[in-house]
Amino acid sequence: MVTFWVTLLAVSILIYLLLDGFDLGVGILFLLPNSEPRRLAMLGAVAPFWDGNETWLVVTGVILWGAFPIVYATVLSAFYIPVILMLLGLILRGVAFEFRNRSDQTRWIWTCSFGLGSLLASFMQGVMVGGLVQGLPVVDGRYAGGIFGWLSTFPLLCGVGLCLGYSLLGACWLVRKRGGAVRDIARRQLKFLAIGVFIFLVLVFLHALLNHLPILHRWIDRPYLFVFPAISAVAACVLASSILKQNDYLPFLMVSLIFASAFGTLAVSFWPYMVPFAITIDEAASPHASLAFMFWGEGLFIFPLLLVYVATGFRVFRGKFVASRGHY
């Protein structure tokens, strides 16, 4: 049961990163100068998906709360402010998504709100990932740091990096789903965003090396971890080739593969810890009776139903979108 719920948690997080990642990225790109028709086309590219994508964040929270309550309590205690800011950003972009299409004189406010909400949510997610990688002070299974214990250079750098990564994923999505000027602009942005992500990865590695982060020891102890960077390197080469050849479909797949490889690197590096390197999976797990009780609800019914919903949605809205007048 413990292995089942850890796997389900990992799958939920990865699905959220990929699905909500591209619509958060489109939101960040919304802040760049553009015309109203093109902004409407950008919104139309994520309109059928965005609210369903965020469901996976709820799934992740429910699994943590029910199956690994110690981790839920520890992570929320450590990242109380980032979590609140992330949720406020998601709320702001959700409201702006609907309100900007119903307003004229105040549309610029909702345009900024949609972009800034996306940027805030993305940045805070990166900060939390960086804080976990850097390590949290945990004593006797409880968070022992202050309310700003997460605030340091490495988490902030990771926040910027995830914003760049989501923006790259969002640009790839626009290239895949739109045509005309929107696709052409996004295609030009791909080059700069890909270079920005590469620079971020170099800076993160140098920072981890200079500050002797504990996670680096896992790379020495587990050389098979280099399989994931190798996959990323191949995907990056295919990405560069697809950009040069102006392929509309491969960039999104390759950036998704890079995200999946990065997630796999962290997941295997953390194993068998859930809060590195303080709380193991077995220490964090709920009693077997609780895990079994959850299995018959979320594990056996809700999770598969969500997978079917996502697969159906992507099948129904497959191919490039053609904008219709008056619709976002």
Which topology does CATH recognise? Formate dehydrogenase/DMSO reductase fold
Distance between the termini: 44 Å
Number of helical runs? Answer: 14
Major sheet:
2 strands, antiparallel
Q: What level of helicity do the residues show?
A: over 70%
Q: Strand order, biggest sheet?
A: 1-2
Poorly predicted residue ranges:
none
Average of pLDDT: 88
Question: How does the overall form come out from the CA principal axes?
Answer: globular
Structural class: mainly alpha
Summed up, the domain count is 1
The top-level CATH class is Mainly Alpha
CATH architecture: Up-down Bundle
Task: Work out the radius of gyration.
Answer: 20 Å
The total strand number stands at: 4
Give a description of the structure.
The structure is a single chain. It contains 14 helices and four strands. By secondary structure, it is mainly α. A hairpin with a 3-residue loop joins β3 and β4. The protein has helices at 2-29, 36-46, 50-53, 55-67, 69-78, 80-99, 107-134, 153-177, 180-210, 215-221, 227-244, 250-270, 281-284, 288-316, and strands at 138-139, 142-143, 273-275, 279-280. α1 (2-29) packs antiparallel against α7 (107-134), α1 (2-29) crosses α12 (250-270) and α8 packs antiparallel against α12 (250-270). A two-stranded antiparallel sheet has the order 1-2. It has a two-stranded antiparallel sheet with strand order 3-4. It is globular, with a radius of gyration of 20 Å. The protein has one domain (2-316): Up-down Bundle (Formate dehydrogenase/DMSO reductase fold). The model has no long low-confidence stretch (mean pLDDT 88).
